[in-house]
């Protein structure tokens, strides 16, 4: 038995509420269960109960055993002075206030349907599964699932907002600077994302503003600060970039100590840092006030037009500085822009609108639904459970479900877990 299950039983009134009695035989009538407290202090605030034909207003504390009250030292904590009912699974000792007045105790297991206990045990049985409810997922109502996925999607955006607000504080409320840092991380993808972010953090955005009008200088700045211009030049272009970076490094007193090393191993050539940084330089060279323009976009096509960029001419025949390759223009694909929209643009717009008090969830939902579903191990796992994702909104929601609920056994806080227990 887990305490969070007892919270679930009380919060959703999953017990017989007629003829409730305390350990001393006093009748209990529930008027208000109280507000679930997820922080320190009693488990439910502002409950209203009739106990022994007297109206009480106060807090409810829940434990597996009555003796947990003393184990947790609540008897010496003023926060628990206003507890009017102690709800327990097993009553092994009487509980008293500081005044030696007994605290009424309700033994919850006496009022629970055995089938609910069986469902709970089945959900959390010890046999290792991908998710606890994988054998019962087929019974989840489609309407409930879709509603829960949309809520999870916004939960995920809220989680990403925390990191964005931190970047905003570090950037002194410069949204363009925050966008640059987040785009750097996105252009680095999974393998080099963190390294690209340290690169962005090592360059004050004012330097990007001063350099962006000169494409070669901006490319030299990014490639050089990333440590990609340190080897002896093999081509004239490589040599020019190196000279440009040495000038910029001295002019702006740049420091590379905090920049993480970049990885080429196990990357497709189109994802090489050289290519991605050149594409990023081209994007910032061609677009002025990029963040403001992104706020004006309302369709996926608009974002595609705004975020399209191509690596400079040298990279048509190269993936690195040291080997010639077959000619091909290195433009960002729509699939790559989709990832940027999912991981950077939508969360950033969501955070901006929320901070401005002008949140328009309908537009963000429409945009996320217009983006193709992602493909990864989590999405494949749900596909085996016959959950087919139609859009990025659903895949992002499923990632949130798996990582923040399934993996952490938070089934009792999950709408799916709740519905399965209530079947």
Rg on CA atoms, Å: 29 Å
Shape: elongated
Low-confidence region ranges: none
Q: Tell me the fraction of residues in β-strands, as a range.
A: 5-15%
For the largest beta-sheet, the strand count, sense and barrel status come to: 7 strands, mixed
Number of domains: 2
Average predicted confidence as pLDDT: 93
Distance between the termini: 20 Å
Task: Give a written overview of the molecule.
The chain is an alpha+beta fold and 423 residues long. The protein is built from 16 helices and 9 strands. It has 2 domains: 3-112, no CATH class; 153-370, no CATH class. The chain has helices at residues 3-11, 68-71, 114-123, 142-170, 175-201, 205-211, 215-225, 236-251, 273-286, 290-296, 300-307, 334-356, 361-370, 377-383, 392-406, 415-421; strands at 20-21, 27-32, 35-36, 44-51, 54-65, 83-90, 105-107, 318-320, 323-324. It is elongated, with a radius of gyration of 29 Å. InterPro entries: DUF2851. It comes from Gaetbulibacter aestuarii. This is DUF2851 family protein.
What's the short story on this structure?
This protein is α+β, with helices and mostly antiparallel strands and 423 residues long. The chain contains 16 helices and nine strands. Strand 4 and strand 5 form a beta hairpin.
Overview features:
423 residues; alpha+beta; 2 domains; 16 helices; elongated; DUF2851; DUF2851 family protein
